[in-house]
Structure formats: structure tokens, C-alpha cells
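> @MW can you paste both from yesterday?
MW: sure, first one:
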Amino acid sequence: MSTPADAGKDGDAGGGAPVRVCYISDERFPSRWTDTQQIMKTASALARDGAAVEVVLARKWNVLFASNRARKQKLERYYGIQADFELTQIPSVPTSRLRLEKLVHGVLSALYAVFGGHDLVYTRDVFPLVLALLAGKRAIFESHRVLAQHYPITYRLIQLVRRRRRFLGVVTNAAFIADSYRAMGFEPERVVIAHNCFDPRDMEPALDQAAARAHLGLPAGAKIVCYSGHIQKKKGIETIVQMAARTPELQYLICGGFPDDVAEARALAAAAGAQNLTFTGWIDVARLAPYLYAADVLLIPPTSIPLQRHGNTVLPIKTYSYLAAGRVIVAPRLPDVVEVLHDGENALLVTPDDLDQAVAVVRRAVSEPGLAERLGARAAADAPLYTWAARAALIHRFMKQRLRAERERG
């Protein structure tokens, strides 16, 4: 049983001491993948909320001496954050299709955490989680996936360590993800829902539609449907192309995609006879807001494929920036989406994979100004519920509660 004299020892942030968090990620930073944005925003916000956060990343295998200060400055510029956390870079191996670098980083970062003075390990990666727990460290896992359906190996590994006393809990980004962990056997108090967010600074300066279109050189009178994010087929770009082919009177602005993905999407559009799509290529978060402000409609592909077939898109992070932009959102009525977007209140929801309905709803959104104004205003009013500061405060409280509960259990 822990005593007041133990406060400050490994895993026991007692009294008013800040929780010391070893935040491990095996992703490559900086990167255009949304996961890296979410990790950096969360780590930064946790540090600003008062946690003592140390972020542990892999460094390039061929770099002998890496400057933490220089890399932090690069991360700050790229992600638009204030990096109040400490940064540690662990040697790695060359990247490959086998993804051995992830296993190596998982082992080395967990080893680093074992000998550190942190209260807990926090990670979205299963290897450092399992290794840290097996070595006796306290840990919290953040998960955005229904593991049993799409990630069987991770599912089995989590089940292997689920009952360990120092597995403090799971942070999820959606209620139905939390439900899947409770179904695995996690007690309700060990699972918390912390939806993803937007950063108000990324939406500055706020622009009305006319100013945004003038800034971007877009036609003032066009009816513009905007999608932002990755555009691989598993993200639903085929559905957007089909909608564009059915609504030639609308302009579709596609903000995202690596060059190969853009080329493939253009080929899909050509095959469908859709000549009303504009592909911008990738736009970094800091430059995205004017495109959202310029739109009449903000689109989440109305298909179930990303969630149900691939399982890798759960409440996409664009949802929250869409809310903040104050425009009509058209999205699929899926278990994750309905947690944040409500039909006829702050969005228009359609039956997934019903192309006729999707086309009708988009046409309605651009043809009823009163509806657009009402839904957009409610979306903007709901956006402050989903900021990184609020999310970090929730996760920080969860950490303290779980540490306290673990100490009381002895």
C-alpha cells in the first residue's frame, strides 16, 4: 500500500505533484498522417494542463547526434503547437515495408520508460504498452479502433495484459469504441471517452465566405462542396466522385491527398465523367481554414466503407474543424458520427451508401439558405466543446483518478 512518504516515487504522483507521463509514439514526425497531428496536439495540451510530459520518439537511424531543441522547434512550426513537453529521441532502424522500426522503437522506448521516473506510460502503440506492463510499469492505452473486428493481433495482446493491476485504463475517441473495450472485460471506470478536437488557432483568422473565396481566388457565385483529408479509396473518395457526377451544377473542392492518390482520384473522376472536381493536393492544417470557410457544404463521405470495412476512420478529426467553420455538414449516419453530429441540429445526416439520398441532401443544403444558416450557426456553437485543452483536462483527470485508484488498491 502506498503511503504519503511514497509520493514522488515511480508511478505515484502523490499530493500536488504533477503526473509524470512518458508519452511513446512509433510514428514518424513530422508527417501528414492525421495520427501524428492528434498525438502532438494531445501531448502539448497535456503539458499545458500541468502534466509533466516526456514525448519519446524514434530518431532517424542514420543520425548519430540529434538535437532535441531543433526537432521540437520543427514540431512546433509544423503542428502549430507550443511544445512544453520534454522530448527524447530513441535510436531506430531504417524504415521498411516490414515495419521493423516500429517493433524496435517499441522495445527500446519501453526499456527507456522502465528505467525512467515516470508515473505512467501513455501510448497508442501496443508493443511499448505490453512491454511496459510486463516490466511492471503503469500504463494507459489510447485506442481509436474496434480491435476484435480489424486488429486481431492487437486484440490478443491487449487481452493478454488486460487484468494486470498496473494497466490503469483506456482512452478512446468514441463511445462505441469504449463499448468494445467494456465488452472485452474492462471495467467501466477504466475506460474514458475523449473525443478528438480542433485547435482554435488553426481556424484563424475567421473569414466570411466572400472573403475566403476572394483570398483563394474561388468564384463568388459557385455552390461549393468541400472535402478535406486523405483521399485513398478506403477513405471514401469513390463516393464523392459518384456524387459529383450526379450533381454537375455543384463544384467539389477536394483538399488533400498525396500525389499518387490525387492522380488515382482524377482517373476515377474522368472515368465517371465528373468534370466538377478540383484537387488541391495536400494542404497543411495551418492553411486549411480558408477552404472550409469558402464552402457551402462540408462533406464527410456518406459511406460505411471507411468505418465498417477498414475500421481505420472513427469520427474523423476533420469533423471538429468542420464544426468550427460554421458551415452545413453532410455526413453518414454511422455509430461514431452520431455522437457529435445530429441530424437537423448541427448537420444533415444521410443513410450510408445511399447515393440517391446523399445527392438529394447535398442539393437541399445548397438550396435552402435559411437551413444552411441555422445549421452552420449551431455547428459553430458546438465547436468549443471539442478543443484540445478540454480533451487534455479530461485525460489528465482520468490519469489522476486511475493512479489514485491503483494506489488505494495497494
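MW: second:
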Amino acid sequence: MPTGTLGFPRFRSRFPWWGRDLQTLRNYILNIEPPLADYPAERLEFPLGDGDRLVGSLHRPDPQAGSAEPGRPLVILIHGLTGSEDSSYVRTSARHLLAAGYPVLRLNLRGAGPSSALCRSRYHAGRSEDLRQLIGQLDGRLAGRGLLLVGYSLGGNLLLKYLGEAGRRAMVLGAVSISAPIDLDAARHAIMRRRNRPYHRYLLNGLKRESELLELPEEQRRILPAIETIYDYDDRILSPLMGFTGAPDYYRRAMALPLLPEIRVPTLIIHARNDPWIPFASYRGVDWAGNPRLVPLFAGGGGHVGFHGWGGPLPWHDRCMALFFARCAS
């Protein structure tokens, strides 16, 4: 579907962020940390069935601000691999949505960010039951006006998997997925390509740091320093802990791709054709016309959760997200 349809602006890269890699790395290069001090956070904890607890930061829009409109749905932001509530892309979206009048919950997945101190286990791309349990705990104070969901990268796959599993039972007004690895094995092959070695090393080091904070069994703790690829991590560390027989089993059972036809919530799916981490081929084979609830929005550029384009400093995906949510909320 062309990006100019349905009223969404077209994406055009802006100077000097040309190409997939500068788009992907821009926030890292500039050390961007959008401020949220204008919207004081309330720490919330969500107990899970096995005793672990998720942590999130709830922000409410300023009722005195002219842009704030009362009664808007709660938006939950779900970070990606090795991310947290403080990932730059999460903070950027939160600030924009708060200015538009939405209450926002920046969620830390199991074992990530502030959740790590309250968890013995960790998140993975298919752990959609955690999101289901969290949503089940939201009361009228938090989600009385409805609920909107946003997932970035791994968080996008987790979000889409949850929506596909829930089908018509998903109590959600709308959702947005950004740069999601809907085919996990294809994404694993892409990130391990020679040209992606710096990305691969960065992510693997982040996974190891996260794992060191958990109560790993002795065998996994012993072999962790010797793990040299994400595939080996998924195969030898994550899979035994999560009940998978190995990395192939994990990728097959956790990916969202086969569940896309079951989604019954209006869902905007944003992806860049030049994403260096997630191959666009994973999206090309989807029968988008077969599920009218899905709105694919594909840009020629943008990299991975980048989309730094013309029209101002706000990323293109955040502008499209706000337009889509305005329709869902109305």
C-alpha cells in the first residue's frame, strides 16, 4: 500500500540522515533522551502469575495545556530487544502522545529496565501472555476510556502475536507495530549478516548484560561468556529457560507472522523497505487484502525504528501513529 494513501504523509529522509544505517543510528549518535519532566511519572507494578512483576511509568497529560483533551484512551508503549521504558524512541513517542492529550504507560517487559529487580525470568519475542495478564489488570482508572497499544521491533512482534491470539477478545481500540520481526528466523539471519556485525555485537552484548541480572541456572551462567552469536544465545540460553527445544522451535512458536490473519483490532503496521535488521521480504508475502483490520504502511527508507524525515524533528512513524490513533479513538 503506498504511504501516501489513507491520509498518511509520505516518508522522505531528511539531511543528513541518508540511508538505512544513519536512519537507524541517529538517536544513538546524538545520544537523544527526550525530556518528560513536564509530565511527572507514577510507578506502577503488575504482578504476574509466577511471582514476577512488570514495572511501568504512567504519565498523564497536562490538563492545563491547550492541546490536552480529556477522556482520551490510555496508550501502552512496548520497547524492543535490550530496550526499556527509557529507550529514546519510547520517550519520543510518549512526549508526543502526552502533548496530544493521551495518558501514556511506558512499559518495561519482564526482566527489562526497572522490572529486572522484580523478575527471576525474562522477556522474549513471543511472551504475549505477559501482555495479556497486564491488560487484564487494568481498571477503569487506567483504561476506562479505552486502550491503545504500540510495539517497537521485538515489542511489535509480541504485540501482534497477542492480538492474533486474542482475536475478537482483545479489548483494544487500536494498535501500531513499528519495525517488527514478524518472521524471527529471517530476522536472525539478517542481523547475523557480515554487514550487520556492529549491530549484532551491540545486541548480543545487551542480551548478556540483561541475563547477568537474572537468576540463571548454573549451566547457563557458565556458558554465557562464551556465547558469540544471537542464534547461540537463543538456542543455548533462552530456549532451555523458556521451555523451547532450541532456537528453531523458539522462532517458529514465537513469531507473529502466522497469526496476522486472526487480528480483529484496527492495526497499523509500519515498516521500512530498507530496514537493515528486519528483511522486508517477511512483509511482502502477507495477504494484506485478506484482513481489512490490518493497515500496512511501508516506506522506501527509514531504517530500523528510525524514520527521521521531512516535516520536523518528530519521527515520521510518530506522526502516522498519532493520525491513526485519532481515528481509532473517535
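> thanks! The chain has one domain: 5-183+255-329.
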